[in-house]
Amino acid sequence: MQLGLVGLGKMGFNMRERLRRAGHEVVGYDRNPEVTDVATLADLASTLDGPRVVWIMVPAGDATRQTVAELAGILSDGDLVIDGGNSRFTDDAENAKLLAAKGIGYLDCGVSGGVWGLDNGYGLMVGGDAKDVEQAMPIFDALRPEGPRDEGFAHAGGVGAGHYAKMVHNGIEYGMMQAYAEGYELLDKVELVDNVPGVLKAWTRGTVVRSWLLDLLVKALEDDPALTDIKGYVEDSGEGRWTVEEAINNRVPAPVISAALYARFVSRQDDSPAMKAVAALRNQFGGHSVTKTQS
Predict the structure, then answer these.
(1) Which ranges carry the 6-phosphogluconate dehydrogenase C-terminal domain (predicted)?
(2) The domain at 167-267 falls in which architecture?
(3) Catalytic site residues?
(4) pLDDT tens profile 280-295
(5) Of 207, 202, 172, 205, which is closest to residue 187 (Cα–Cα)?
(6) Is 147 left (phi over 0), alpha (psi -120 to 50) or beta?
(7) Residue ranges of the domains in the chain?
(8) CA 15, CA 115: separation in Å to the nearest integer?
């Protein structure tokens, strides 16, 4: 099957390779001339036979919206666009509406697997019409992990459902990473345990807390046992915030995911204004000592 792939960054580049290994013809476009197959989006579209399928893997937000708008002016009735980036689910209805006016189908696909997806396959969560999903199924089958289709792929629902599912997936990921990180810090803090990497590695087989994330933490510690080369500063790409917002909108208690998100905010503060206020209050009502800033 032919596929146009827009965006050949960390994920898109490996996805192109995995699809080619599976025998699909992939034409990639990227602004980086070192990795692109064609010079422009118009060139990409003209290279493909109809009905054309174009997969977008560019940063969420304006970059994706602009790409969808450009494709709406290039593609034709019967073609299909798939947004595989981490777009907010509320963008999908607008993208689908814009393309539908030209007779172009639209699917949103949450993709999980990171840089390891090339060899391991990608977890896929798709939103959109069933006939559009069926049209793209050979691509989904090539990208997902080997094994039963429902282990690594789901048609989650209508337009927006794929990105919504991926949003919740990433919110859960925030909580899991934070729990592992707190456990690591506690083990590392006490003198009683002198083989923290060994303990974590032992957890990777036969325990109820084993997971791929734990495997990756063990790998990170094998590469840098004290994590001395990494600063404790953690960004968030949006999905955790959106998950918390949706939990609030739907009155769903989500204390773990919320706390994990706030922990990332704390990681970016050199000196917490809130903790300054707490120290000042303890001093005011109880006469407790405070640590002064260096002049």
Answers:
(1) 162-295
(2) Orthogonal Bundle (1.10)
(3) 166, 173
(4) 888 889 887 888 877 6
(5) 202
(6) left
(7) 2-157, 167-267
(8) 9
